[in-house]
Amino acid sequence: MAHPIRSVAVFCGSRTGHDPAHHAAAAALGRGLARAGLTLVYGGGSIGLMGAVADAALAEGGRVHGVIPDFLTRIERPHGGFSRLEITDSMHARKARMFALADAFVVLSGGLGTLDETLEILTSRQLGLHAKPILLLDAGGWAKPLARLIESVIGMGFAAPEHRRLFALVPDVPSVLALLGVLETEAAATEARL
Ligand code: AMP
């Protein structure tokens, strides 16, 4: 059953990147989610853009739900101020929990881990395993090359033209927040199959 979005998983880098636009977008997103009363679900770390989103959400009194695998707690250092922190026994379990907890996904700038998480939710939506909105935020021009790559595989005949509708490329944080306010989510019964 479709319903309004109440929780948002944010995928983003464990580094901040060179361009300050990425950090600014992470902080603005964290603040905006908290002000909108949306729960932030994220990878639980205190470093990089991940830490910036959580810091900003917590500073605004937002609800933050971190999910981190045990072996990463020494590297990504769990944030101290969470509403809730879950420690999983594997990366796969972390991804599954973040997926289950989220009504929608926002992808911020990041590295290979962020790309991995993004492709997994895109491909699971492609397979019809969920109908949760996926917003790619183009902070500092991060998302355009990914959108171009997807366009290129469609052009080459490796994906269907309708797969363009699996995600939205969004230019800035206010537009992300506006979309989260109007889009609906569908926690399909198929979730259990993921
Ligand atoms: P990165 O974008 O590489 O900085 O990573 C962002 C987040 O993705 C970090 O929390 C990483 O631990 C996580 N990550 C890295 N590799 C993977 C993977 N294979 N599957 C899921 N998450 C990952």
From TrEMBL:
The record, for InterPro entries, names: LOG, LOG_fam
Q: What class of enzyme is it?
A: hydrolase
Put simply, this protein is called Cytokinin riboside 5'-monophosphate phosphoribohydrolase
Extract the Gene3D superfamilies matched here: 3.40.50.450
Pfam families in UniProt: Lysine_decarbox (PF03641)
Q: Which family does it belong to?
A: Belongs to the LOG family.
Q: Which UniProt keywords apply?
A: Cytokinin biosynthesis, Hydrolase
Stored SUPFAM superfamilies: MCP/YpsA-like
- Does the UniProt entry include the keyword Hydrolase? yes
Organism this protein belongs to:
Caldovatus aquaticus
The enzyme's E.C. designation: 3.2.2.n1
Q: Which reaction does it catalyse?
A: AMP + H2O = D-ribose 5-phosphate + adenine
Superkingdom assignment: Bacteria
